[in-house]
Amino acid sequence: MAQATSMEEFEALLQESFEMDTPEEGSVVKGKIIAIEAGQAIIDVGYKMEGRVELKEFANPGEAPEVSVGDEVEVYLRAAENARGEAVISREMARREEAWDRLEKAYADDARVEGAIFGRVKGGFTVDLGGAVAFLPGSQVDVRPVRDAGPLMGLKQPFQILKMDRRRGNIVVSRRAILEESRAEQRAEVIGKLAEGDAVDGVVKNITEYGAFVDLGGVDGLLHVTDMAWRRVNHPSEILTIGETVKVQVIKINKETHRISLGMKQLMEDPWDLVAAKYPLESVHTGRVTNITDYGAFVELEAGVEGLVHVSEMSWTKKNVHPGKIVSTSQEVEVMVLEIDGTKRRVSLGLKQTQRNPWEVFAESHPENTEVEGEVKNITEFGLFIGLPGDIDGMVHLSDISWDERGEDAIQNYRKGDVVKAVVSEVDVEKERISLSIKALGGDKFADAVGGVKRGSIVTVEVTAIEDGGIEVEYEGMKSFIRRSDLARDRADQRPERFNAGDKVDVRVTNVDSKTRRLGLSIKAREIAEEKEAVQQYGSSDSGASLGDILGAALKGDE
Description:
Strand order of the largest sheet: 3-2-1-4-5
Number of helices: 9
Strand content: 35-45%
Mean pLDDT: 81
CATH class of the largest domain: Mainly Beta
Radius of gyration: 58 Å
Low-confidence stretches: none
Structural class: alpha+beta
CATH superfamily of the largest domain: Nucleic acid-binding proteins
CATH architecture of the largest domain: Beta Barrel
Distance between the termini: 212 Å
Shape: rod-shaped
Largest sheet: 5 strands, antiparallel
Number of strands: 30
C-alpha cells in the first residue's frame, strides 16, 4: 500500500516537472547568487538551472563590483544548457535590455538620462547609461571646446538623448544640451534682475583682441575694448587680467538673445566735457604720439583725449613723406589746436604750426636782390632747384640762368650737387615759391650798356670781325651785327672788305630789343638820316642845286 502511494507521488512530481514552463532562451530571468568563486558568481536561475557570470559584469565603468551571496539579480538567458550542462547567462546583456527599455521611454518623453563617461573614441567619448553604451560627440561635451576631459571621466551626470536606434544598437547623447538649458535658465534669472544703467561687479573670464567676457554670476557680458577707457586701448590686456574682479555698467541688454553689453569708462568722468575749455583754438600743448597711420599721427593730450595731426599739418617742407619718418610712437611733441568738434569728439592738431613758416623767415632775412648760395638739389626741364636755409628750395628758371645762352643750353653746364650763387628775384609766401636768378648776379649788362640809347641815336662802334654777309661790331661790350645791305647808302659801297677790324664807325640805332638783348645798327640809315637833315637845312634838290652842292654847304656849316 505504501509503495503504491510513493509511486503515485513520483508520477505526480514527474508530471508537474513536465508541465512546468521552461524559460525561453533570449529572455531576462531572475536568479539568486549561490556562490562566488574564481572571479565569477554562480547564479541559480531556477528550473534546475545554474549558470556563471563574470563579476566585472556587475560593476559600473571605473567602479568595483558590489555583489554578495544571496543577492537576487536579473540575468539574460542566452542558452538553457551548454556542454557542461550549465545555463549560459549574462548580467551585462540583461542590464542592456533593461536599459534600452528605460532609455526608449526617456527618449519618447524627451527626458534626461543619467550616465557616466568611461572611454575615449574617435570623434568623441563613450558613455555608460546604466547598461547601454552611448556615443558622446566631442562637440556635445560642453558649450565651449574642452581641452581636458579628465575631470569628467567616471562622473555620473545627466545627458540628453539626441538619437537612438535599438535595431542597430546606436545611441547618441549630448551633455551640452543639458548645460545650455541650465545656462539659459540661469541667464534668464540673472538677466531678469539686471537693468540697463546698473553698475555691477563681475569677474573677467576671457580676454580677446576686441574685448573681454565678464561673468556677472552665471551670465557673461561683453566688455568691448572701446568701452574700457576714454583713452585709446590697443589691447584689453593693457587694462584687465583673467580672474580680476571689475565694476562695470550694463549698457544694453538684448532680451531675445540674452546678450549683455558692458562698459567701464561709463563709470568714469568723461574728459571731453572739459576739452573746449582746456584746449582753446591756436593754443600749444605737449602730447604723446600714440598711433601712426598713412594719413597722419594721433597725439594724446591727456587720458581719453586724442587729436589727429593730419599729414598735411606735420611739416612745412616735407610734403610727400610718411608720418612715421617725421614722428615716432611714444614721442613727446608740441602741437597746436586747430579745430575741436565736440559732437564727433575730434580734435584737429598741427605740428608745423608750432614752428615759424620757413618761407616767411626767408622773406624777412632775404629781400629781393639778396645774393644767396646753395646746392643744386634737382634739375628739371624748366630749371634748377637750389637748396636754401630753412630746408626749403628756390627755383632758377631756364630764362634766368644766362644772358648770353639759351636756357636749354645754359642748364647743361650744371650738375646735381653743384654749389651755385644766385640772386633772389621774388618770394611768394602763400604759394611757398622762391624765384632765383643766376644771370642777375653781375647786374644787367645790356641794360647798363644801352641805358641812354634810343632808337634813332647815333653811336660809335668798333669793328671786331669781317664776314661775307656783313660786319660784327661791339658797343660797350655788347655784340651786334650789321648786315651787308646796311653797310652804305650806295650799293657800290656795301662791301664788308672795305672795313678793317678795329675801325671806329658811326652807326644809327634802328632797334633796341630787350628780349633778345640785341641792338639793331645801320650805317646806311645814318647816311640817309644825315642826307635828309642836310636837305632840310641847306636847300632842296628841286631848286636846281645838286646834292653835292647841298652836302658841301652842309659840311662847311658843320666846320
